[in-house]
Design brief:
Blueprint (H helix, E strand, L loop, with lengths): L5 H13 L12 H17 L3 H30 L19 H8 L18 E4 L8 H17 L3 E4 L2 E2 L18 E2 L1 H4 E2 L12 H6 L4 E2 H7 L5 E5 L16 H13 L1 H7 L14 E5 L14 H4 L8 H6 L8 E2 L1 H10 L9 H7 L8 E6 L4 H11 L34 H11 L3 H18 L12 E6 L4 H14 L4 E4 H4 L5 H5 L1 H11 L2 E4 L4 H12 L7 E3 L1
Parallel strand pairs: 1-2, 1-8, 2-6, 7-8, 10-11, 10-13, 11-12, 13-14
Antiparallel strand pairs: 3-4, 5-9
Keywords: Membrane, Transmembrane, Transmembrane helix
């Protein structure tokens, strides 16, 4: 008789085990019986053969399961780590804040209601700048947010705002405690006013009815689903062979985009993005999206090429008067809380009787704020020299003292290739990365000029007696030396160092620390900034809106 192969033998043994002769086979369509049969089949496979074979099979199966568990644990361990929980009010400064109350407030803004009549609600007018820069420093983002919001205001469309997405290297907490990527901060924690959906300020009733309030991105997703969106790319507008904004002034650029947002025929003739699903009469939702990198290297409406040259300047008067950047632009509540917490730093040098009097005064009226950037700015200053750059944005305004004119670039040399002359590089470093002596000289000159201009010429000592040093430098040796120089040689009574001394009462304040520094510098009697810095430019903007006199705003 022909001997069955091992596999045939195994199959017959299994069949016999599962279906003895006196037991009828189950109906093949019975699910429960079929499942039970599979279990029996597995048991039979393990039990077939000698005990040794059964033991080896069990051992192999357990070993395989163990290695699978080890591999999965290694893969999913970062996500499986149990992180400590933030408190309801974000009081734990070792963890990023959740901003539960602020997010709830934003979600409940009254304009987030599709039933409202136009220009809000379902048939309202909205504009979303998806092209807006993201994951850079706060001040690179802030100036664009404000100008985009102003364009939305001019177009009588609701500005769609979202969170501030951090550049990861700048976030105050390490990666192992972050709960989102990239880290985000609600815009309402940093700013107040119409740009974050607060009511209009300074508009009459008719103007309020014409201008819809800003809305959060979550409401945009609800009221403006993709099928309702009119989309245009930045590369449909900006290149030389299109509408060529590269040769236009800031004001001309704004007027061009304004026409696109208010003239449907011009929009349709310009946009290359098909809007096939949108009803031809529906112009509620407009979205500006960034072009691919090969089409537009800086795909923003108001891009770096505009902010970094004099073309931006003819927008100043209009922008300064806009509700988005003047009376309507307010400091966020978290920032104000942090400012109040630190006001004692600016009166700590007073005698007891002077402290009582100081409570009735603003200590910032006797303060000179100075912005000294180090760290990553060392290479940045060299790059600025390579490109023969101008000052940044509003720092170029011609009515300000310390106006900077770039020196002539060496003839027959290409910019951006490390070909600037040593003399020119030294000029740039003197303005961008001043040494200790240059810092001390500029601070003293700024104090004397302001005191003379405001009739506070010293008789028994200087009126300005406190320095607020805004810096990302944390080297205690260098900072201690500079602080001692100010107090010994300059006669300053108090020097506050932002990176070492500003206190944060909770995680929210720590998160908006850069905005706290900016608010304090805005309030100071005199501000000496870095003309190449967006941080300085945004402080200057707020100071000029507050009518600080030009001589109170200085550059190295």
């Amino acid at each position: 008789m022909h001997r069955l192969s091992y596999h045939e033998e195994h199959s017959e043994d299994t069949e016999a085990l599962l279906h003895p002769p006196d037991v009828p086979k189950p109906h093949r369509h019975s699910r429960h019986v079929r499942n039970r049969s599979r279990v029996n089949q597995a048991i039979a496979l393990l039990c077939s053969g000698s005990r040794r074979r059964v033991f080896l099979k069990i051992l192999t199966a357990l070993t395989s399961l163990f290695f699978i568990f080890v591999i999965l644990a290694a893969i999913f361990r970062p996500w499986a780590t149990i992180l400590p929980r933030q408190t309801p009010n974000d009081t734990n400064t070792s963890l990023p804040p959740r901003y539960t109350a602020i997010r709830k407030h934003t979600a409940s803004l009254p304009q987030h209601n599709v039933s409202l009549p136009p220009p809000e609600g379902h048939n309202g007018r909205y504009i979303k700048f998806t092209s807006q820069i993201s994951q850079l420093g706060w001040n690179n983002v802030l100036n664009e947010v404000l100008l985009n919001a102003h364009l939305a205001y001019r177009a009588k469309r609701a500005y769609v705002f979202g969170d501030y997405d951090w550049k990861k290297e700048y976030f105050p907490w390490p990666e192992n405690v972050r709960f989102e990527d990239p880290p985000r901060t609600p815009l309402g924690a940093l700013l107040g006013g119409p740009v974050v959906g607060d009511p209009w300020v300074g508009l009459n009733e008719s103007e309020v009815r014409e201008h819809p309030r800003s809305v959060n991105i979550d409401f945009w997703e609800e009221v403006c689903p993709p099928k309702r969106r009119r989309v245009i790319k930045t590369s449909d507008v900006k290149p030389w062979h299109k509408l060529n904004t590269y040769d236009k002034s800031g004001s001309e650029t704004l007027e061009l985009w304004l026409k696109l947002l208010t003239d449907p025929a011009f929009f349709l003739a310009t946009s290359s993005v098909p809007n096939l699903e949108v009803d031809e009469d529906d112009w509620s939702c407009v979205e500006i999206v960034p072009a691919p990198q090969e089409e537009d290297s800086f795909p923003q409406v108001f891009d770096l090429w505009l902010w970094g040259c004099e073309r931006i300047l003819d927008l100043w008067d209009e922008f300064k008067a806009s509700p988005m950047s003047s009376l309507g632009l307010r400091t966020g509540s978290v920032v104000l809380r942090g400012v109040e917490r630190n006001m004692g730093l600016f009166t700590r040098h007073r005698q007891t009787h002077e402290v009582r009097r100081a409570r009735e005064e603003d200590p910032m009226e006797r303060t000179l704020a100075i912005h000294i950037r180090r760290g990553d700015f060392v290479q940045a200053c060299q790059d600025l020299a390579d490109w023969n750059s101008t000052y940044y944005s509003w720092n170029q305004l011609p009515f300000l003292p310390d106006h900077f004119v770039p020196p002539p670039y060496p003839p027959d040399k290409e910019r951006g290739t490390n070909n600037n002359s040593p003399e020119n590089v030294a000029t740039y470093l003197g303005h961008c990365l001043p040494d200790d002596d240059a810092i001390a000289r500029k601070v003293e000159q700024a104090r004397l000029d302001w005191e003379a201009a405001t009739n506070r010429t010293p008789t028994a000592g200087h009126f300005l007696d406190t320095i607020f040093l805004l810096t990302n430098e944390r080297d205690p040796v260098w900072l201690g030396k500079l602080k001692a120089h100010f107090m010994d040689a300059g006669g300053w009574k108090n020097v506050v160092v932002s990176s070492l001394e500003v206190m944060y009462g909770d995680a929210q304040e720590l998160d908006v620390g850069m905005a706290i520094d900016m608010e304090l510098a805005k309030r100071a009697a005199v501000f000496v900034g870095n003309g190449f810095s967006s941080f300085t430019s945004n402080i200057l903007h707020r100071r000029l809106v507050d009518e600080k006199i030009p001589i109170s705003n200085r550059f190295f």
